[in-house]
Design a protein that fits this description.
By secondary structure, this protein is an alpha+beta fold. Helix content is 19%, strand content 22%. It has two helices and five strands; from the N terminus they run H-E-E-E-H-E-E. It has a five-stranded antiparallel sheet with strand order 1-2-3-5-4, with helices on one face. It is globular.
Length: 115
């Protein structure tokens, strides 16, 4: 399911341009337009899920596929050996700006504290 009003659904569908660095039938990875580090990618499921809190609606293998895709994306970006951070924000208090489940893959520099 996709949402016509969701920018990430439209990116996944190829309707809105993005600097896509990887994709498969389930996920799309692209560069964040406001990077916080030399490598700052977003990984999104093609299926519209508003947040991690609603991820129970995904099929049973989606979590394992997501983790594998995120790791492969980090390897492709060249940050797997030195290290990277994976973050997902859930809801407005956590800073989620786009209500479509997504993971930030951040690396390419020594990262500071967790928050």
């Amino acid at each position: 399911m996709t949402s016509r009003d969701c920018i990430f659904c439209r990116i996944a569908a190829g309707e809105v341009p993005a600097d896509v660095v990887g994709e498969d039938e389930h996920f799309v990875a692209f560069r964040d337009v406001r990077p916080l580090a030399p490598v700052h990618l977003l990984v999104i499921p093609r299926e519209h899920v508003a947040s991690l809190d609603e991820a129970g609606g995904l099929d049973g293998g989606a979590s394992a596929r997501a983790l594998g895709f995120i790791a492969a994306t980090a390897r492709s970006a060249g940050v797997a050996e030195s290290g990277y951070r994976v973050i997902t924000n859930t809801g407005p208090d956590a800073g989620q700006e786009v209500m479509h489940l997504h993971w930030h893959v951040i690396g390419g520099t020594r990262l500071g504290g967790m928050v």
